[in-house]
Amino acid sequence: MGVEIKSEHIDIGGKSVILVSVNGGSAVMGTCSAGYGAKRGDTSAQTRLFYIGSNPAAEILCPNHGSKNSDKLISLCTGYSFMDEDIHSTLTDCLNRLNRGESLTAGLHDALALLPDGVYTLYLSDYYTTDGAGTFFWGAYNLTHEIHGTAEHNRVIGRNKTYRPCFLIPGVPLDTFDNKTLPITNEAVKSRAVQGIVYHLSGLHSVLLKGHHGAVSCTNAKIPFKCAVIEKLDEPYTDEYIPVTPAPAPSPEPKSSENPTESPEEQDQPQNSIPAHQNAEIPSHEGITGFRSASVKIPLELIPRDMIKTIIEHRFEYKPEHYRTLQRKLGTVRKKSYSNKVIPRQALEISEQMPDCEMMESVFSVEKLTQAQLDALLAGETELNGEIIISPNFYASIVTACNFLQYTNPKKFIEFSLAILDNTELYATHEYIANRISRIISKDVYAFFKAIIANGDPGYEKILPIAEKYISFYDKQTENK
Amino acid sequence: MAFCDLKPVRIINDSTGIVYIIGDVFAVYANAPVPAAYSWDQIQSVIEDRKALTIKTENCDFVIPKKDFSHQEDYFRALAIIECAQKSGGFIYEHQRRILPLKSEYIETDPGKDAYSGSCEIDENDAAATFIMLMNFKLVKVLWLLAIMLILLIFLVLHLTVGIDRDNVLYFIPISIIGGAILTLIVYLICYGIARSKYTSVAGCDPASQEQITFIISPYGFAACESCIYEDQELIPWGSLDYFVESDKMFVFYKDGRTSVFVPKKAFEKKYLGGIADIISLKLEQR
Fold this sequence. Notes:
Oligomer: heterodimer
Mean pLDDT of chain A: 85
CATH topology of the largest domain in chain B: PH-domain like
Shape of chain B: elongated
């Protein structure tokens, strides 16, 4: 049976969302569960694999029995050298088609045919070419380590909000980096509308399937790395149901007068122990509201019927037919866990300056912060006019506010951070804020740090090492200039 | 999650036209254009009785008669999905008595190269014989004690009713012994009947007793699961068991003082039984 790919454009609050259903996909690219590591004595961390063709590409350790609230430990798989040539050429062809002006659905058609059955959403989005902690993505996953921001349910953003994944995991190891390709991609990226193709993996992170050299070129040239994103729509979500307040009836029915507190919804609710034949009376707010991916929530009513069928009549994840091969390869010893290839220094330095995971979490969790709210936070309040500003936890509020400002308004960030550091009562937040602000080269920050060293105030003892380091770095920078 | 590759089960109620889907979500196609779908954490309870599965949500009870499952395999698949979902969903799960462990006890892990696998139906006679062996194991001292007490009791009753003297004592001693032995044998036969009916009643509740069962014994755990749904990737860790007893026909695993699994030796090739016994005795205490 051939692959059947159907697409629909859905309007959600004035925003058009592309949904694509894949039936009969070849499933040569995707994720699957690989169970517990009982062999290595670990029965609390579940393993998942991202596979490309016959190779396990990335191993994802999900601690706490695969809890969706926990960040994952990710590394490129041992023994993985490059994706199969036919898959690579399909992806190259897809990227070329997108850059020839074809729509996302048409351009990505062949790439979608490589995926397992399911419903996906497609969109374009800018990605930061880092792992979310300031390291250039391509060489950041050689060793298994915890990647911040990879939890499906991000604690800062919360379970209910949507967010756009913006950090990368390489789809090929660093060994495939070729310096000689860079001059070609340096030119190519200037004219490209779409720089890469990514597949959303977990949390804020996506796997870059195509466009690795382009990512280096874009970072060097400070060109936004715009990617075509493929995101699976498979997580059920439930929005809080707010019952409609009953309007005062002009002539109340005798039944309602007997029980005036009962809302119409409650009256409509079927009694317990309903036999199967009465199930047609399921209250409309019963059950889940719809299905979501990281970036979009789609109510059941808006999902085409055949797509709902595809979602609910398939498991969210299946093992591919060649799972045994993947599993066998998973254990092979990598010839080397490092690479001799070196990414240009400039790209690495620019990556360090890119927004990190904490900043992006704050951006997705806070819609806006007014001056009044910032003043309230500075006064040690977590609420303004009876409403919680960010979080009931003061420390979390300050941290989130700082990260939010650092991304949206760097000037205000410096003002706000210095105001916090100036207030000795907010001592608990000083170390974190000093660390964040020390990444910014600013005269005001320099002056502040210089002053606290000069004053020798014991209240600033904790941040003195940060201040000293900053001053020496700043002085060196000025001398170089 | 264990059994994560099992396909969702579609059940159609012919009389009402309602379609139920048991998968990663529980969905109900009633008369509305959009199905009502529930994530498993929205399910309050699942009750399995002899005739139906009842899935309770906040406002509705969905009763799915067992006869609506088109194949027996669908039923096993539905139960496996529900039992695995129960582990994360946390709903109340009431079920019929089982001859096999619940699927929620499994973890997804590779059995490894050193695993032994085999399959067979659990033979009722073998299981009953093992039950009886276990009963003997427990009752043998009690039965001896009972026999002695009955002998003494009969002797006493004869003495009180007939009166024992030198002439009849030689008759009364064998009568007491034979009487005590017969009564003890009757007690033993009653226990035998109870033991056998105990297995048949459990087997009667669980359709798995009529199914081919796959058994896996691996250094990392074991499995005893209906062959039609087993995926070769699930094991119950040894740590979840307490001890085992070996009979001539079966290994019997115990958990919390109760039998958890019967592993018939006939499921495996004879030449592997030594290796299997080695793995089990390394992992569990033998009693």
